[in-house]
Amino acid sequence: MSAHFPPGFLWGTATSAHQIEGAVREDGRTPSIWDTFSHTPGKTEGGDHADVATDHYHRRTEDVQLIADLGVNAYRFSVSWSRVQPTGRGPAVQRGLDFYRLLVDELLERGVRPMLTLYHWDLPQELENAGGWTSRETSVRFAEYAGIVAEALGDRVELWTTLNEPWCSAFLGYGSGVHAPGRTEPVAALRAAHHLNLAHGLGTQALRAALPARAQVSLSLNPSVVRPRTRSPQDLDAARRIDALANRVFSDPVLKGSYPQDLFEDTARLTDWSFVEPGDLAAINQPLDSLGINYYTPAVVSDGSDAESPRSHAHGASESSPWPGSEQVAFHQPPGEQTEMGWSIDPSGLHDLLMRYTKEAPGMPLMITENGAAYPDKQGDDGVVQDVERIRYLHGHLSAVHRAIADGADVRGYFLWSLMDNFEWAYGYGKRFGIVHVDYPSQTRTPKASAHWYGELARTGILPKAPTC
Ligand code: PNW
């Protein structure tokens, strides 16, 4: 059966500044924590870094044309903080802002709605030197930066996102250390999570103050679909612990204005959470216009207190844990097909998430701000990558979205990760999420089969039958 999506649905692709821009030393930009991290030996696959990436900073106009030619009506990108505010404080660099103004104008001219994310993991290194997200000063700095960007682009950008996936920034950045800044301190990770929440709250206030009333403000989370391996009380408790650290540590303060009591208990031997100051929760609990959800794969967990259980953390192999206070939980690879990331394919997880937030935040419009899959290149004789696995992945997940809408979820848009192959963080350039292939030596962009498939969907709003190939 073919499925119709609601009129006005946003069909987009997504990228982030650090993963595509390159030009890391141009026009006054200073290093971010990801520049430092990727240039530290042993931190990224093959020592890959994003000095050039997909050279988008110099190919902006060509890339906007590429987006428009796909047939999509929206594009999600992020702003590089250290391009706009090189020291993370004080006056903005006009040339940095100009790049994004031109990008937005070119998108609008071609009928593509821009969705701007203020922070997709690239903290100015100067702010990390002052404590980074473990310091509450960084939340205040973020609000100032949000105000600057809003003043500059508020007349033309309507869709605003404060943070992308604060879980990754806090727990992969300061807990397991597989992301920048590469710190492995459990308490630092919890402090970072709170200061990211506070940054979201103060940033939202700064956006509201500077933006016209029609602007929409949102936050993109990457909630985990946590499945207990069995229904035993021990495994159910493991799932509850991971749900607290992956999901409720962000969604509760943002949506309800409180931290979960069980999270305090689970982490009591590490911290008394005295870094949460009076007034913080009210500041974090700002009304939002939509909630962004990024989804790739579910997690299956069990109680791992016995020595035999796998301690491999589903979120990147490392010695350190991204789960402060719940290090004993074991993660299991679900059976069935996987993408090249080793992430199992399970579209029902996306349906579950959309229904969960429909229940937890009644009336809240939802936006899928990321979903997609990495697959190795299989170029045909014509140079086009025949990525039928990716089409199948997308088809399955979009069917799940359609089903959630039928079940009452107010889903307003879908942003495919990613527009083009790019710098996949610690995995470097080896993992390709794009629907457009990038030949890095020549920087040639070639739409894959999935780009044509997705463009057709975006133009018609009708999800075709499952691909049979
Ligand atoms: C997201 N995990 O990253 C990011 O928002 C993108 O920048 C990234 O390219 C994309 O997904 C694909 O990885 C994640 O370990 C990285 O749970 C790691 C995890 C989740 C999301």
UniProtKB/TrEMBL annotation:
Catalytic reactions on record: Hydrolysis of terminal, non-reducing beta-D-glucosyl residues with release of beta-D-glucose
Enzyme class: hydrolase
InterPro entries, alphabetized: GH (IPR017853), GH_1_N_CS (IPR033132), Glyco_hydro_1 (IPR001360), Glyco_hydro_1_beta-glucosidase (IPR017736)
Keyword Ion transport attached: no
Example GO molecular function: beta-glucosidase activity
EC number: 3.2.1.21
Protein name as it appears in the record: Beta-glucosidase
Organism: Streptomyces finlayi
Source taxonomy: Bacteria, Bacillati, Actinomycetota, Actinomycetes, Kitasatosporales
